[in-house]
Amino acid sequence: MARAEPPTEKPAKRRAADPTPPPPPPQSWDERLVDGVVARRREVGGVLLFLLALITLLALVGLTQTGWLGWWTRLLRQVFGWGALAVCVFLGAVGLRVALGRVRRLFGLGAGRIAGLVILVVTLMALSHLIGGYSLADAFAGRGGGLVGWALSEPLFDFLGPFLAALVYLALLFWALMLLTGRSGEDLRRGLERASAALAAWADRVDPDRIDVVGHAEVGQRAAPTATRAAPAAPPAEPDADETGPRRRDPRLPILSLLERGELAAQSQDEVEWKSRRIEETLHDFGLPARVVEVRRGPAVTQFGVEPGYVERPGPDGELKQQKVRVGQIAALQRDLTLALAVTRLRIEAPVPGRSVVGIEVPNSETSVVRLRNIMEAPGFARLNSSLGVALGRDVAGAPVMTDLAKLPHLLIAGTTGSGKSVSINAFIACLVFNNTPEQLQLVMIDPKKVELVRFNGLPHLIGHVEVDADRAVGVLRWLTSEMDRRYELFETVSARNISGYNRKAKREHRLPYIAVFIDELADLMHMYPGDVERTLCRLAQMARATGIHLVVATQRPSTDVITGLIKANFPARLSFAVASGTDSRVILDSVGAENLLGRGDMLYQAPDAGAPARIQGVLVTDTEIERLVEHWRAATPDHTPVPPPWEPLIARYALLDETDSLLESAVELAKKHEQLSVSFLQRRLRLGYPRAARLMEHLYEMGLVDDPQSGGKTRRSLVDDENDDPIGKYLSDDE
């Protein structure tokens, strides 16, 4: 029996099912060249434009001449005159911009400065044509400003005349210079005021007794004075922080020109598009279809808004149904996205508050420096209309972020060493002293590290000096609580609820200033005096807002023994820089995320009325800017002399109690109320043993509050004057 032949269709099916496509034919060198040029047509066009500008510039200065170059240079000279050189430079800059895509980072020119440069060149072209007296024939010959200069100068000269035309050109030149330097009319006004004040101060130093005379004085005889310099008027009353309307600025306040202005670095559009495609491809590889619907570029990170797509999943009845990708599934791919984008750290905000997208925050290839001046010049800072407004930085969209310290009312800052805590505190202090005089605001600074805040010594706003001793810091906090109690007593006398109401009712000389307290390292204080520091901080945080006392506390160790639950409960506004772990992030923010920050000013700000923290790139204030600010206030207040801090008597009192007995104050109160004292009497009233009561009696004798013992040393007569409300303070002052 013959064997059956296999079916002929099976080999055909096997060949049809083979998924391996044939390899593409190799490309020739000219095809690869064309593909490379087409892919980089933008860069090639920029390079060609730059080369054209360079060759034209060489031809204009006479270094090279050919047939077509001669015609091209004659045309440029005919149209622009000497401005043809500026045109070549401009074309070269445009070529570099197109080729590199980083003209702002390369030249440091923004749109305003470019406009100022164009106005300056055009105005000089018109002036050169007008001053040289060139005619239309001279313009066709390439002299002066060419046809452009003749067209801008001749009609204006014929219409307005020489005087008004000169004024117009001078105004245009002045405007161009302001655009180039980045100055505004307000900066000019403040500069003139500073120059006038400096000139007057110099005149007073040179001749403090100078007088105005009428007529001639005889030789050797002093002329009679007819007029003297008027005393400087008192600064106008500042409205309260809660009042609406524009605030009148004191002439002594510094101007923003003391600070440096910065610009955001441009990010390549190709880089943004590549990251967007990479995010979509990575999510699709894990079975999570999604697309990037928005991109928000910030100074340090770029937030890609990802909209989750739909996947088909079987339903209860077995049919496939479209179901939206869950937000938690995208957030779980944080490490995979970090690997795909080849970045150091990545943060996912799922979802973005107020938006129906998941925010994937990717670090930029180059971090922009956020300057304090740019934030203070923003319209939002003026809209705060508060003397306690502080600048935070820029968010992930590049928008300026600021807040009002009076509404927080206290701020807790945490972050590792070098993350930007001290820089942010410096920025807060700079904002406050920019907008407040020493009569409006006083500062209390505690710096156990002894290197960060000491540069503000000599500032007239500062009470005493920067405290660097942890032992004295407790006395400072105790003085703040006593000052708070004193202010509440003053409020009660005039039936005021807060400092604003009191200042409206009180006279100018009796108005109370705001007090801003800055503590740079809380962990050191909590380690040495945990009970006293926690108790005083919590009491101030609970009650000091109405009295105008606001706290800014920073620490580099956000652990539960430093930031206790009681402290956290009284500090609703918190600022977290980069921390070591998610546990530290939960301690400061009650959520994770701070461990994924980049450092160097990258932070998460939890506002009291916000549901989730916002990512911000903090501002940078250099040491030079701080020195300028301190020197300005020293020059503006030459009669300021540092006085001993008001907490010195309180520190001495507690030092005496620590050396003697904590119940010494109670024993002194008994001596004020009773004429006779004895050891047994102190035992009964203070509930003490005989040895401790005997030591208290000896302390009272050493302080001169009781006399020598009588009747065998059992009874002593009190020598405390009833009119003396503070015998301990009198004893300390006499001892000094």
Write structural notes for this entry:
With 736 residues, this protein is an alpha+beta fold. The chain has four domains: 39-185, no CATH class; 269-363, 2-Layer Sandwich (Threonyl-tRNA Synthetase, Chain A, domain 2), CATH 3.30.980; 372-631, 3-Layer(aba) Sandwich (Rossmann fold); 660-735, Winged helix-like DNA-binding domain superfamily/Winged helix DNA-binding domain (Arc Repressor Mutant, subunit A, Orthogonal Bundle). The protein is built from 28 helices and 17 strands. The strands form four sheets. The protein has a nine-stranded mixed β-sheet. A hairpin with a 5-residue loop joins strand 3 and strand 4 (320-324). The model is unreliable at 1-18, 102-108 and 206-246 (pLDDT under 50).
Main features:
736 residues; alpha+beta; Threonyl-tRNA Synthetase, Chain A, domain 2; Rossmann fold; 4 domains; 9-stranded mixed β-sheet; 4-stranded antiparallel β-sheet; 28 helices; 17 strands; disordered N terminus
